[in-house]
Amino acid sequence: MTQPNFILLYVSSPVESAAFYARLLGRDPIEASPTFAMFALDGGLMLGLWARHTVEPMVAPGTVNASGELAFAQPDVAAVDGLYAAWSAFGLTLIQAPCSMDFGYTFTAVDPDGHRLRVFAPHRA
Predict the structure, then answer these.
(1) Contacts for 106 with CB less than 8 Å, ≥ 6 apart
(2) Nearest to residue 120, comparing CAs of 72, 57, 82, 85?
(3) Cβ(72)–Cβ(32) under 8 Å?
(4) Which of 74, 17, 5, 71 lies closest to 41 in space, CA to CA?
(5) Of 14, 16, 96, 103, which residue is 20 to 30 A from 30 by alpha carbon distance?
(6) What is the predicted pLDDT for the residue at 38?
(7) Residue of 46, 47, 52 whose CA lies nearest to 10
(8) What is the pTM of this model?
(9) Mean pLDDT across the stretch 24-51?
(10) What are the residue boundaries of the structural domains of the chain, listed by start?
């Protein structure tokens, strides 16, 4: 069974939000760009701050529960595709088919309340 290991919050300005969370958490982000920042938290949990206007699939204005997502990091593309097949068979609502984005290979589903569930394998350097 896979476990969520990322919390992604959609924010207006990742730079400003990263400064806020750096003060709040007492640590610097491990990754920062104009559209995304990430903090490593104790216990292996990661906190990502994603520029709302760059989220894919796009968040429709006024959408309920579309301010963040649980993310499930996977070791490789095959694992992402495997979960896509399993979640499809399970009947989850899928809002993004597997695709490559700037951070990795990913797909997105939603839970019964509309919360986003993102599965991804990060691009390897």
Answers:
(1) 80, 96, 98, 99, 100, 118, 119, 120, 121
(2) 72
(3) no
(4) 5
(5) 96
(6) 95
(7) 52
(8) 0.70
(9) 92
(10) 6-122
Closest CA to 50 of 97, 7, 93: 7
At 110 the pLDDT is: 86
Which candidate, 27, 75, 76, 63, places its Cα nearest to that of 47?
Answer: 27
Residue bearing tokens 């216990």:
43
Residue pair 96/87 in contact (Cβ under 8 Å)? The answer is: no
Q: Does domain 6-122 have CATH number 3.40.50.620?
A: no
Q: How far apart are CA 91 and CA 85, in angstroms?
A: 10
Nearest-angstrom CA–CA distance, 114 and 125? 33
The CA angle 114-13-46, to the nearest 5 degrees, is 60
If we measure between CA atoms, which residue out of 88, 1, 89 comes closest to residue 97?
Answer: 88
